[in-house]
Design goal:
Number of strands: 4
Distance between the termini: 12 Å
Structural class: alpha+beta
Order of helices and strands: HEHHHHEEHHHHEH
Low-confidence stretches: 1-6, 55-65
Largest sheet: 4 strands, antiparallel
Shape: rod-shaped
Radius of gyration: 47 Å
Strand order of the largest sheet: 2-3-1-4
Length: about 375
């Protein structure tokens, strides 16, 4: 029984070896013989700003500014990495799906590589994504764009089209951000102008109604005038009291004359007070408060307009400073020879698969023999 088990194991291993050999031979024939040539076009660029961030302008040798620029380019590169593989970019590069299918259609004798004619949109997008690579370089901030196709010209055209899409993406993002900032600043300036106009109109209407007066100064003048009258009243009352002590007759002409002056002065003081703050008079206290409030509104609106205009100008300058553009480090070229790296990668993948299957199979056979 043990012998029969060993014979079965050896026969199984021999059959597996034959199958593995046939598989590797077939893989080698396909990878190095039947498989269609692939061509690669590579370009390299970096996304830069006209000026480095102002916060890092004073750093020695500009090291910090350079690292900030690298980080900014890496961030933009990650956005491009996602954007260039989107369905929108595929639609922009290949507006006609028939052209895309024709460029990457399978060709005999290699019927396994390429895009089938009946591929749905999802499969087309997945195939499109496999034809390009966007790799941001961590150290330099450069972005490497690689495109693959079955002809040198198709690989070059795809790379050039994707570069155009990247340029449009960077410009669109910059323009949209600048437009939003400019629109917000313009709205703030218009709002401040409208508020200043309303405050000025209210102050002008107040001045037209009450004349070109300064209620605060008029109130101070009225208060000073009343204070002088009250001081005069005190003097007259003192004089009246002195005269009453001098003359025993309270109706004496001298006493009556001063007493009449006292009464007239008291009446005049009360009348001036009524004119100044009484409900039937000008009510200078209320007018002074109202004039002060209107003046404060005008000053505040004027300061707000000045601040809004300054902020709008700063926003315009900042948006110009933050504009980005693509600097080409290496333009794409039409490939002079096919890229054979995929052949070795595919064949080595087949060898690795055989090794894994062989190891798992050997382990299972050993477990069976132990049982």
């Amino acid at each position: 029984r043990l012998k029969s088990g060993l014979d079965w194991s050896w026969r199984t291993l021999f059959s597996g070896s034959v199958l593995a050999s046939l598989f590797l031979v077939g893989s080698a024939i396909y990878c190095f013989g039947i498989g269609r040539d692939r061509y690669t076009s590579v370009s390299e660029f970096v996304i830069k700003q006209p000026m480095p961030p102002s916060a890092t302008g004073s750093v020695l040798l500009g090291g910090s500014a350079m690292s900030t620029s690298v980080l900014s380019s890496l961030e933009d590169g990650r956005y491009l990495q996602t954007y260039l593989k989107s369905s929108d970019v595929k639609q922009n590069v290949f507006p006609d799906p028939a052209v895309f299918k024709a460029k990457y259609a399978p060709v005999a004798p290699d019927e396994w590589s390429g895009l089938p004619s009946d591929a749905v949109e999802q499969n087309q997008l997945a195939f499109f994504q496999r034809q390009l690579e966007v790799i941001p370089q961590e150290m330099s901030g450069a972005i490497v764009l690689s495109t693959n196709a079955y002809t040198p010209q198709d690989a070059f055209d795809l790379n050039q089209s994707l570069l155009n899409q990247a340029q449009l993406f960077v410009n669109e993002v910059n323009q949209s951000i600048s437009a939003d900032q400019r629109l917000f600043a313009e709205k703030q300036v218009a709002f401040a102008k409208d508020r200043l106009k309303k405050a000025s109109d209210q102050l002008e209407a107040f001045q037209d109604k009450y004349g070109q007066l300064n209620p605060e100064e008029e109130q101070q003048a009225t208060t000073s005038f009343i204070n002088n009258l009250e001081s005069r009243l005190v003097d007259l009352k003192v004089e009246e009291a002195s005269l009453r002590r001098q003359y025993r007759d309270p109706d004496a002409p001298e006493v009556a004359f001063v007493a009449d002056q006292v009464l007239e002065l008291e009446r005049q003081i009360q009348e001036e007070r009524d004119k100044a703050v009484g409900p039937g008079g000008r009510d200078l206290n209320k007018l002074a408060n109202q004039a002060s409030r209107l003046q404060s509104d005008v000053e505040f609106a004027r300061d707000s307009l000045s601040s809004a205009m300054t902020a709008a100008d700063n926003s315009r300058m900042e948006s110009q400073r933050q504009l980005k553009f693509i600097v080409m480090l290496s333009k794409p070229q039409v490939a002079a020879a096919p890229d054979d790296s995929w052949r070795w990668k595919a064949f080595l993948s087949c060898i690795g698969s055989v090794i894994v299957i062989w190891g798992v199979g050997g382990f299972m056979l050993s477990a069976v023999n132990r049982d």
